[in-house]
Amino acid sequence: MPPRKDPDASVSVPCFYGAELRYQGEAAGLTLEQLAEGSFRGISFLSQIERGERRMPDDLARHVDKKLGTDGFFERRCEDAAKARRAGHPLYFADVPDLEKQAETLEEWAPNVIPGLLQTGAYMRGLIQYGAPWTPPDTVDERVRARMARAELWKRADQPTYWGILRESVIRNTPLPPEVMAEQLEHIIDVIRSTQSVLQIVPETTPWHPLAGGMAKIMTFADAPPLVWTESDFEGRIVDYPATVKEYRRKYDLLRAVALSPDASLAMIEEAARTYRDEAQQGD
């Protein structure tokens, strides 16, 4: 097994607790294998916690405290790390923003809405307005800030390589005002071109294709196995079982093959943006 990298405790609250887990484990003379024994968690899961990439769930915190004799430290503090990571996000989404930051590559399929990393604040507000209109204004603001904070990774020199695939209906069929959609599609074009990313569109003339059941985000890492994030309206989950991740990989590659080329896809988005912009100006 390769040597474990020293976690940087100064990066974030989760990294702090990850570094503490590493320190306490080594002080107790326990390997990750020994620490994981009896926890119903895998070694790779504990390794990701050490690196600050995953939050520590309550059951594992209790196990670790008992194994290391840390007098409830991790059980008391793991919720602090969870709060630091999920501000403005649903609980089930808590790990994803940090995983996106750690990823070397991000590949996502968005059949229903524009991916979060490409959304404008106005588009996000529209999603909440039509999807959950009872949401208090303060909560809406918090969620929009959290969504925009995720997009900060585009400004990093070491940003992940990005490849997105959208269904054409995502840019065509929308209740949002033309001005909002024009701004949103122009933003997508700016991000994709300025970051040398790739975006493809699956046209409406292709009704049958892989991954028709819902969204998927495939993430690869420099020193950890690949993961898949999949989500529905009220829940999401991280898929890390290698055989299932491999199957997602195969289907995503096939989805690329049935989508329009990157150039044709951007041309379609540009055409849609012009149409929305014209509609917005005619309505003034």
TrEMBL record:
Name of this chain's protein: Transcriptional regulator
GO molecular function: DNA binding
Signal peptide: none
Span of domain DUF5753: 93-271
InterPro entries reported for this sequence: Cro/C1-type_HTH (IPR001387), DUF5753 (IPR043917), Lambda_DNA-bd_dom_sf (IPR010982)
